[in-house]
Amino acid sequence: VLIVGELINSTRKSIADAITKKDALYIQEIARRQVESGAQIIDVNAATSECEVESIKWLVDTIQQAVEVPLCIDSPSAEALAAGLARCRRTAMVNSISAEQKRWSEILPVVKQYHPRVVALCMDDGGLPKTSADRLRIGGTLIEELAAAGVPADDIFLDPLVKPAGVNTGFGLEFLESTYILKKEYPQAHCICGLSNVSFGLPNRQLLNRTFMVMAMAAGMDAFILNPLDNKTMSLFHAAKLLTGQDEYCLDYINVVRSGGLEA
Amino acid sequence: VLIVGELINSTRKSIADAITKKDALYIQEIARRQVESGAQIIDVNAATSECEVESIKWLVDTIQQAVEVPLCIDSPSAEALAAGLARCRRTAMVNSISAEQKRWSEILPVVKQYHPRVVALCMDDGGLPKTSADRLRIGGTLIEELAAAGVPADDIFLDPLVKPAGVNTGFGLEFLESTYILKKEYPQAHCICGLSNVSFGLPNRQLLNRTFMVMAMAAGMDAFILNPLDNKTMSLFHAAKLLTGQDEYCLDYINVVRSGGLEA
Predict the structure, then answer these.
(1) Which of B201, B119, B125, B199 is nearest to B162 (CA)?
(2) This model's pTM is above 0.80
(3) Which residues of A touch B181 (CB under 8 A)?
(4) What radius of gyration, in Å, describes the C-alpha atoms of chain B?
(5) Cα–Cα distance for residue pair A167/A86, rounded to 1 Å
(6) Phi and psi of A68, rounded to 5°?
(7) DSSP state of B194
(8) Alpha-carbon torsion A144, A81, A154, A112, what sign?
(9) What is the Cα–Cα distance from B46 to B10, expressed in whole angstroms?
């Protein structure tokens, strides 16, 4: 299961400040700590920055001086994605394309030029998916059309889109079922998601987010965009990895326990 | 989702001592705290006690003086089960019957006499179930034969039997799949399980147990035998209840958060 560290995002005030002040040491520290905690990819988002393209370039250069892992360039803007990808030294990821006509036509040329791994949101111009059938249909279209554009299935990360359980408590099982069906139908592709939408409007959000992560892992989710510095999240993550048969001989789990990295 | 509080069990030294010394106050305190923490049924097990039948009678009387909830009489002995059930003031539960010939023929008459809810282990004389197909077949037989003996499906709690992930890391998904299939095939019956076997032989057992509880809830498990005094377990339990659509309007969750009962 792949972990994309979500902390370098300009919607977080400390990151926005560091971007403004060009505080490379702070950004590098956050990058390094995420990798040490288990992130295999670092998300880079400057979408709320005043000059997004310049900020993305600076962030990519800054982070690559500190850590060796691939980056996930995260923006709604094709120009910012291209600017970030052009500077990535390793095969990167883009977050995200979707089946919305405008987004598809803008982002696809960038994907074709740089060959990143691709987060593909299961939504089209009809808005957020309403059922698991919606997600299956849109996911299928995305895989087919990305394949036609030369993107191998193994580089595609379908995002079934988490919706807030506080709005409708049925959204949780709907999402888990979607994940299970998508992985069954397209085993060669991956499923990825962020977690925080599930707890929107509710108290103790981290508790809900990390509980939902465990359920999503049992349903077959194989990548998460999350905060790897949350020790409770990572404790559950390592336990869930073992319990879903993804830690043969339990060696990863035992090693993390021995290093003192897990909650009791 | 039903919680059976597991703490009054003579394999725990403090309980064995309390039984020996007839320390009613200690037993009542443990019963009361389990109920306050969310247990809706209190398990009563004196199987390792020197005189099990006498101990069960004393425990049942003692606990019923302290709390109003039903009891789950837990023993391999038909005599102990009958002695406990005879003193229960509310509809009790027995833990457990199975499709093993000897256990079936000994326990069934007790079930027929006292009409308790019944925990039915998905195992027969072939030993522990090897696959989800085994569990489905044995579960089907148990439901059919219990029905023939007059036990309504709503009183049957099938236990798919948790096996240790440390022995085979595939056991976790095998169990979850079994739960999902059993609930789909027999929606009118319930599924129950203990958790601690999953972590047998591994470090940080509580972490694995409570992570597995979350996965089992997503798979449809509707009753657990667990330690309700573990606050981390109960925090995940309340979050998982909401996320699986079993807490309409999120009211239970918000109330427990407000009362300060959950981890952040």
Answers:
(1) B199
(2) yes
(3) none
(4) 18
(5) 40
(6) -100, -5
(7) E
(8) positive
(9) 5
pLDDT digits over B124-160, tens only? Answer: 999 999 999 999 999 999 999 999 999 999 999 999 9
Provide the pLDDT confidence category of residue A58 given band limits of 50, 70 and 90: very high
Please say whether the beta carbons of B87 and B61 come within 8 A. yes
Of A245, A250, A258, the CB nearest to B173: A245
B151 touches chain A (CB under 8 A): no
d(CA B85, CA B72): 9
Nearest partner of A87 among A71, A75, A103, judged by Cα:
A71
Cβ contact A221:A175 at 8 Å = no
Dump strand ranges (E) for chain B: 2-5, 41-44, 71-74, 93-98, 117-121, 156-159, 190-194, 223-226
- Whether the per-residue pLDDT at B245 is higher than 90: the answer is yes
Chain A residues lying within 8 Å of B262, measured CB to CB: 204, 207
Distances (CA, A) of A147 to A85, A97, A118, A137: 20, 14, 12, 15
Q: Is A188 on the interface with B (CB under 8 A)?
A: no
Please, what sign has the CA dihedral across residues A56, A58, A59, A65? positive
Longest dimension (CA), chain B: 50
| Chain centre distance of CA A130 | 21
Complex confidence, ipTM: 0.95
Q: B250 vs A166: CB contact, 8 Å cut-off? A: yes
Residue A36: both structure tokens together: 């040490």
| Secondary structure string (H, E, C) spanning chain A | CEEEECCCECCCHHHHHHHHCCCHHHHHHHHHHHHHCCCCEEEEECCCCCCHHHHHHHHHHHHHHHCCCCEEEECCCHHHHHHHHHHCCCCCEEEEEECCHHHHHHHHHHHHHHCCEEEEECCECCECCCCHHHHHHHHHHHHHHHHHCCCCHHHEEEECCCCCCCCCCCHHHHHHHHHHHHHHHCCCCEEEEECHHHHCCCCCHHHHHHHHHHHHHHHCCCEEEECCCCHHHHHHHHHHHHHCCCCHHHHHHHHHHHCCCCCC
DSSP code at position B76: S
Tens of pLDDT along B42-92?
999 999 998 999 999 999 999 999 999 999 999 999 999 999 999 999 999
Residue corresponding to tokens 């309980």 = B15
B215/A214 touch (CB, cutoff 8 Å), yes or no? yes
The answer to whether B43 touches B4, Cβ cutoff 8 Å, is yes
Q: Pick the residue from chain B with its C-alpha nearest to A246.
A: B169
